[in-house]
Amino acid sequence: MTDAAELRTRTREFLAAHPPATTDRADFLKARFDAGLAWVHYPEGLGGLGLAPSLQAVVDAELEDAGAPDNDPRRIGIGLGMAAPTVLGFGTEEQKRRFLRPLWTGEEVWCQLFSEPGAGSDLAALGTRAIRDEASGDWIVNGQKVWTSSAHTARWAILIARTDPDVPKHRGITYFVCDMSDPGVEVRPLRQITGEAEFNEVFLTDVRIPDAHRLGAVGEGWKVAQTTLMNERVSIGGMRIPREGGMIGPVAKAWRERPELRTHDLHQRLLKLWVDAEVARLTGERLRQQLVAGQPGPEGSGMKLGFARLNQEISGLEVELLGEEGLLYEDWTMRRPELVDFTGRDAGYRYLRSKGNSIEGGTSEVLLNIVAERVLGLPSEPRTDKDVAWKDLAR
Question: How far apart are the C-alpha atoms of 213 and 116, rounded to whole Å?
């Protein structure tokens, strides 16, 4: 199979054999994965057909026209956007076949155990330890992770831990898949400025991870993590949205429907942000087209930077436009949501939640350094700890 016409025919044949109106949703998603129509650029047998990523749009269009169910990508975004490409790139054949299918169908939710209280922006300084049990070959993990989205609903986690404290911080890290149902995993809610506890802190006490759940070689976890992080930034900043999708949509709608709120100054600011949002949308489309030819690069950091800035400026304008209404907040109930819903909530929620956009997925300050050094080729900042063993670093 090499062209869109053949793929379109295959998709229609699949729909004829599995009518969305009469097929159980879970059964439909499993059958779609097995037919290679989940992500067509993945290998055969792993949800794909070994085709160009650009052809996924052909499948998606046919399925959407037929009213087929999706896999609720917002709920399982960490698995789809971060865990899956990492497992595909570094996992064994057994790991790929075990994890990818239930990950894609949404049967198993994933979270990301990376950041720590003392290692957020400087992620490579992490202190969670993984020590090999020589008798069993398992790894015993102890430590604390923080700002973990979806930890309260996750079945699995991608985890980086320090396995060698006697080498510089980037070289003594190993990457694992952690079972969140292990009795040593404790998930505590972190209540945010929105009133919700979408994030969590996770305490790991003698968590046992079999060596079969290690991704990549021992001590090469930083290399594996780079794949995760680059995909994370693309998935956050490079999402496919229609014109006036995302945060600019509710503001533009309010402007059109509420002429009594308009002022000349707000009009000028809205026009500028509308253009900025459209530029970001088209830049994201270009980035996705570039990804067809290869893996994500540092350009995704630029997209994520723009996403954070735009969301915060647009939500600020919306609150100002609505005046007293913008100061209202619908619900301060402490709850633990399964996903973030920017456009389905009120202006107050969007304003508060967008403050986290410049922190999550890499702080804007760190991403500015990445863009400066890896995209623009500017000299890197002096790093006095580059060749110092992790155990000798000041804390």
Answer: 21
Q: Is the pTM of this model over 0.85?
A: yes
Handedness of CA 282, 283, 287, 290 (dihedral sign): positive
CB 157 within 8 A of CB 180: yes
Residue 295 sits at φ, ψ, to 5 deg, of: -85, 160
Q: Does the structure show a pLDDT above 80 at 338?
A: yes
DSSP state of 382: P
Residue in the block written with tokens 């046919």? 62
Residue 147 identity: W
Q: Which residue has the tokens 């991870």?
A: 209
pLDDT, position 236: 62
Quickly list DSSP for 298-334.
THHHHHHHHHHHHHHHHHHHHHHHHGGGGG--S----
The beta strands (E) that lie in the chain are given as 110-113, 129-132, 139-145, 156-162, 173-179, 185-190, 199-209, 214-215
Tokens of 54: 């650009």
Angle between helices 299-322 and 264-291 (to 10 degrees): 160
161-174 pLDDT per residue, tens = 999 999 999 999 99
d(CA 192, CA 360): 13
Catalytic positions are 232
